[in-house]
Model the fold of this input.
Amino acid sequence: MDGPTDVAIIGSGINSLVAAAELALAGKRVCLIEKADRLGGFIHSGERTLPGFIHDTFSSWHPLFVSGGAYAALGKELHARGLEYCNTDGPVTAGVAADPGTGSHRVVIAHRDPAETASAFKEPKDQEAYLAMLDDLGRNSGTVFGAFGAELRSLKDVAKLAVGLFRSARLAGTEAFVRDSVMSGRNYVRSRFDGWEADQLWSPWLLHAGLGPDQATGGVMLPVMAMSMHGFGLPVVKGGASRFVAAFESLLRDNGVRIMLGTEAREILVHSGSVGGVLTSRGVVDARTVLANVSPQALYTKLLTQPPAPAAGAAARYQNGRGALQIHLALDKPMAWLDPRLDTVPLVHVSNGSDSTGIACAQAEAGLLPSVPTVVVGQQCVLDPSRAPQGKATLWLQLQEVPFEPVGDSAGELDVTGGWTEELKLAYMERVLARLEQFAPGTRNSVLAWDIIAPTDLAAMNPNAVKGDPYGGSAELFQNLLWRPFPEAAGHGTSVEGLWHIGASTHPGPGLSGGSGHLVAAKLTAPTPVSSRISRIQAVLKPRKR
Done:
């Protein structure tokens, strides 16, 4: 179809966009195959409620992207094609909750400046512990971020990490840092802080990594989240997330990438153990390299007609995480929090930290609607006023602790018969808004229109969101890092020569970083030992100017 192709990429989420761009810039002939009528996967924006109100439909915040290798490689090209970020130099994120003992409101705010953040902690030793937490991560950042950006099944990459560990082992506290890293977030903050501030501020952020406060590796992800936001803020795309995709699309088309929208990938063709191309709803795309940005279930039980038996069995047992629900609101006026400092914070968690978030996670894991959910309140208009008409605002609410198929309601109030019906979605929205009213009275009366996306809607919109999980599968330790998606097919290379697996269900996991796409593109464009040797010989033989 339409000329020769070096690399075919299935799906067009962030990892596909990154891989396609880097491969095309390296001179590869790339074809991008997307079932939907647009690029971007979970990156999209539009007027979902009323004209003039621009909502980021799914993902919104880009600290992981601007701090990663993909942005280092592509940022200049994307900005040249219209990408523009809005960010903050002041408050970044906050947590608000009712004190369990007194009922009074507790508010803690993270600023770009770590010292300013810590200075608000009540206990002086907690102030010191907060800065020490960031210093500990800084000393070990080469190993931590190196692991996120490495092929953990590659002996070469692991050897580099081992050298880093050997060097850092001479520093006091390294063993304690490794031990802390595999802790849950709850145990981590308990072991370091006496007060509530660090817990309320950062434990809810573990939800954005596909974790809960009682799951392993929270002890490394919590300080990673903190360091990322202190260092890079919470950038959002000016004018909406679709402009991010538009910049990528322009970059891809400028470099000859063939984009096939509205095209379903039906089978990955394999001949004698090697990839031969992709059978699509529009015919065959011949390619000797295929990148599949799909769920493990889709790869090993659908696209490969004769998959390796161990991988197919593991894919059938692959565990997805909790579902997610989003509520988009058009407001007649910006939110007015009881604590006015929150009016200028881009993202606020309504949670007291590990306790309320842990309970809500447990309820959702048991198939119950949480009675007191953690509410992620995105105030994009604080950073980008162009998102709404003058004097009005949008609100981006995310609920990351909901079951795909609810079996009951923890509060015993809502009827879950029939699953996520329109009636249940509206009723749950009212519960969420009632929670907001405790801290920002008048919010409910300012709502002009809403749009609710339930876990079932997510699954229908994006086949990678199996069971309404937008994070590509549970990110607990048994399905993370060295074992993502599972030991039988860990890493991005597969047992089929020329077939690579990318996306949130592969290392380094969920998040808008483009990490797996960047890793695989680097592998495919790295010089071979032969070509490297030829380059060195040519450099030696190159005539010198006299």
